[in-house]
Structures are given as structure tokens and as C-alpha cells.
Specification:
The protein has a domain of about 210 residues: 3-Layer(aba) Sandwich (Rossmann fold), CATH 3.40.50.720. Helix 4 links the parallel strand 5 and strand 6. The chain has eleven helices and twelve strands. With about 325 residues, the chain is of the alpha/beta class.
Length: about 325
Amino acid sequence: MKVLVTGASGFLGSHVVRKAIQHGFEVRAFVRKSSSLKNLEGLPIEIFTGELKSQDDLTKALAGCEWLFHLAADYRFTSIQGNQLLQTNIEGTKAVLAAAKNSNTSRIVYTSSIATIGIPKDGTPGNENTTLTRQDLVGPYKLSKYLAEQEALKAAAAGCPVVIVNPSAPVGSHDIKPTPTGKFIVDFLNGKLFAYTNTGLNLVDAEDVAEGHILAAQKGKVGERYILGNKNLDFKTILEILSSITGLPAPKFCLPHGAILFMAYANHIFSKNLLKKEPGIPLEGVKLSRKKMFFNPEKAQKELGIPQTPVEEALKKAVQWYQENGYVRK
């Protein structure tokens, strides 16, 4: 069976490609002309170069493919290129779903995000039924993923065979950009983190997330959402785990959220107006850190059987990959 993977050259996309190969599928990788193919080197796949906004490209790419994994997205916590981010995540998803509807695709797995899931006011982990408020939609990334997911839900309600997966914070190898989660690991490895704030994340091995995509195609229910996550950890604990892996000291100072938010605003203004580049401190990411991003992946564990590799092993793989691929100063 042949499958199409959009965003195939990216962090999660390349992991889904590898898992699909392991499961014996023929893989067609949909990539942009400007995409680096480093993550796909040496893999027995077909490369299709095209643009998400082109219905002709998408129709040709889907020809002969029974399953579609739509992972292509712009994953940045920044406001500088917000319109571009909205265009990629919302309009790109609409175009892909429209093309898939007109093909013989029997199953579509849409990669959403925990950014579309709310966090209860009592501090307990959010789940697939926890709704968001308008105030929760902080920044263009979170807004774009929410609106794109609404398109996927509408398509499923209209009869399109769409299953939605919501990865938490994946870590592991092949995080080439790196993602916002990967960036703080790289900053730690380079001694750039001098303090932390009282927040938290749900970490999960990127390979488990990729396996979750395959399982969602096999076992997921059309129109349902599945949180692909593992362990909830506060930021201080994550840094202590990284310290135990590397021998590097973990930051000892906990800064109030307001202080970090002030620095993020200052960095954002300086980067946007003077440097004309992405800020080093992602403003939207800092705003989101006001709450601990804790989630309950029980539904995906029970209904899909997503693996639960210890997050310590996932962090080790991430550290090793960053060290071996030039992300860490000598």
C-alpha cells in the first residue's frame, strides 16, 4: 500500500516516513522545492516536489495513495511572520483536504497540536474534551492550528475519512530547525539558560508520536481527536534530567513569569524593528508558559496503543543527535 506524507522532510514528518517504511508501506514524500532533504537521505521513498497551495500538485501527489498523513505546518511561536504562518497552516490544510476528498484516499491522518486543547482551571491535565476559550488562542501559531483543526473536523463531519492526532511536545532525533521544544534543549546544551520559570510540558518520544500516526490510521475513529503524549513534567524537572544526562549544571534560579514576559517583549521589539529577524525569546511561547501545559494521553493509550518510551530515553536521543549534528558549541 502506498501512502503520502506531507511535511515529510521535517522533524515529525521524517519520523512518520520511517515508521511507515518499517510497517511495509510504500512512501511518497511531499516536500517543497526549498525543503532540505537531509532528514530523508538514504530512505527508500519517492520524493514529490510541490506546493500545498497547488491543487494540481496535490492531486498528482495523491494519485495511487490509499492513506494520507498531513503533517506540513509552520511551527513557530512568533508574531513577525504571522500572516505567512496562518496561510500555511489554515489554507494549506484546506487545500490538502479538498484534494484528498476528490481522490481515492481511504484514510487521512491530520496532525494537529495540543495547542487546540484547553487546560482546566483547576490545574488538572487537559484532554480531548477540554475546550478552549478565545483568550486561550495566544498568537498566530495557536490560532492557526485551532482554525486548521476546525477545517479537519468539518471535513470529517461531511464524510471525509479524517482522524486527528494532537502531539504534545515531541523530543528526539532529526529536529533540524529545531522546534521550540528542541530549541530550549539546544540552549541548555550551549549554556544559554541561566534561569527557568514555573511551567511544565507533556513530553513524548518523537518516534512514539510517529507510531501513533500509523496506529491512528489503523485504529482511529473518523472525526475523533487523540492526544499523542506521555509524561507531564515541570520545567525544573526537565532541566534536572538534562543535567543528569549531560553532566551540565541545571539553572538554579526561578524567575517570575512577569520578568520573563518583560524580557520577551523587549526582545521581540528589538528583533522585529532593528534586527528584522525572529526573536531569540519567543513571545507567544512565554505567554503560553503562564500555565503548565499538562495533558492526559489516556485515550490514545487505550484506543490506539501508542507506545510510552520513557522520556529520559527520548531526551538522551535528542541530546545525542544535537551533539552529533553541530548544534552544540565545541
